[in-house]
Amino acid sequence: MAKSHGSAVRLARRAILAAPLLALVPARAQALDDSLTGVMRRGVLRVNIGFWTARFVAQPGEAEPRMRDGFHAGMARMIARELGVRAELQDSQQSGEDAHRLLSCESDMALAPPVTRGLLRQFMFCAPHAEMDLVAVGRNLPHDRRGRPSLEGLRLGAVNVIATALADRRTLADILPFAAPWPMARQLLDGHLDAIILSRVMADSLVRLIPEAKLAVHVAVSSNIYAAAIAYGAHDLRRAANTIIEQLRMDDRLADLFLRETGLPLHPPPPA
Fold it and tell me: Exposed (0-12), middle (13-18) or buried (19+): which is 32, by Cβ within 10 Å?
């Protein structure tokens, strides 16, 4: 598993560096790059906040919890502050909303999808700022001969981007894809799935949200690196964001924010 994980991370990082050279580039890449001047002119950085490192937060009077990624919301405000503008946050409820908003110019940045082969064909990524395990959550999973939890032959679910990435890496196949985390968690709770694959932050949050379900984090399946996404052609904004993100990493502001929002240490991605 360690060798497979290391190969996946190295592949993702090489893909980030090669992303501007991909043949599949939207037409916007040929237009004049006003990505940064446009943000400064508006005085607003529009940032789509996904649910990849979000927590499940119960809402009084509501049947379903909401997803809240306080880490990336705080990171968006930090980046906007360094640019001297205001952050306008747009929450994603389903997988794919971040790509739609970037491609339709409704957003300037998405924080922060996992770096996968499929997403690299849709937009550019800034320098990665985090690495996080993908883990299996379930009840009483079977064990292999070495006494470790085994996922072989189980009914598994994952958000569609993660399901595709795990299949591409040949880590896991035959995973049922979902558009959003909570409907997937509901299938697990109702017994229609044996385990679901989540980021560590989401997994810990789900276990704490429903203690009576007796869910547990059983095994690390793989890992993902996470990075801000920018529309193809927005090179000026990408360069500015990279400079700011590197400074936030170096002075530990990102690490402090992650610990405060998740209770977990932030693991920076390995050097390229």
Answer: exposed
